[in-house]
Design brief:
It contains nine helices and ten strands. The protein is an alpha/beta fold. The protein has a five-stranded parallel β-sheet, with helices on both faces. α1 links the parallel β1 and β2. It is elongated and about 60 Å long.
């Protein structure tokens, strides 16, 4: 049975609101076999409290609304803007790729162990094409590979990459899995636009994984409080070293080069 979810929407232009409302109406199609439907929350009119909030970071109300939501808790926050707050479930850049926003909403209600690594998928673009809604961007196929031991960090990366339209994602939680994904046979069949390798990857020396990446467009080496020596080693290997917690502005600059 489809579950009704109210979304608090803060900011956005009239055109963006119109597009968002169209997406919400599409989510309510009972013949689509969807599990969740979305509606804009209206104070004093909606029958229940919002479970999600979509906030335009450029809105004058954004900061106050964010503080209110963080204080009350229990509401998933989706943010549109260059600097994402720490507690945001997902963040997106403009131009907004609305199918990925809706997919992130779906994923908020999906148990972590059931999340599909293909966060973007084809569900929303297919639904929109079938209804003749052409205001959404075309779905393009780009691939990412994450060698990251921490599940929460992988969740963050999936959401961040989806906000840039990178939706086909393979993952490894240790060195052995990473080498399997990056084997010459697999790399001949499919390449990656971005590869992320964390230096805390267990099961061997993560640096042995780096040469397997090949001519990937963007190679990132991450580590909590990454040292200068490791940054230089990353550079020698044609990669960029990033410390954790990640600098969102710097990360957005790098990902923008892939679009």
């Amino acid at each position: 049975m489809m579950q009704r979810v109210f979304v608090r929407v803060v900011g956005f232009s009239a055109t963006e609101r119109h597009t968002l409302n169209t997406a919400f109406r599409l989510s309510q199609d009972r013949q689509s076999a969807r599990e969740w439907s979305y509606e804009p929350w209206v104070a004093g009119q909606s029958p229940t409290a919002p479970r999600l909030a979509l906030i335009d970071g450029t809105s004058p109300e954004a900061s106050e609304s964010l503080q209110e939501l963080e204080a009350s808790g229990g509401v998933g926050i989706l943010w549109v803007g260059s600097i994402s707050p720490a507690k945001a479930w997902a963040s997106f850049q403009r131009p907004i790729k609305w199918p990925f926003v809706l997919q992130a909403m779906d994923n908020y209600f999906t148990p972590r162990d059931e999340l599909d690594v293909d966060l973007g998928g084809d569900t929303w673009p297919s639904v929109l094409e079938s209804t003749g809604a052409h205001m959404f961007p075309e779905h393009d196929l780009r691939r990412a590979f994450l060698a990251e031991p921490d599940n929460a960090d992988r969740m963050y990366w999936r959401s961040k990459l989806a906000s840039f339209g990178i939706t086909h994602i393979d993952e490894a939680a240790n060195v052995l899995e990473a080498k399997d994904y990056l084997s010459p046979e697999r790399m001949q069949r499919m390449g990656y636009d971005i590869v992320v390798i964390d230096l805390d990857l267990p099961g061997g020396d993560p640096w042995t994984v780096v040469p397997l990446v090949g001519s990937t467009r963007l190679k990132l080496i991450t580590q909590t409080r990454i040292s200068f020596a490791h940054r230089m080693s990353a550079k020698v290997n044609g990669a960029i070293g990033l410390g954790k917690p990640l600098d969102v502005v710097r990360l957005n600059e790098l990902l923008n080069k892939l679009t």
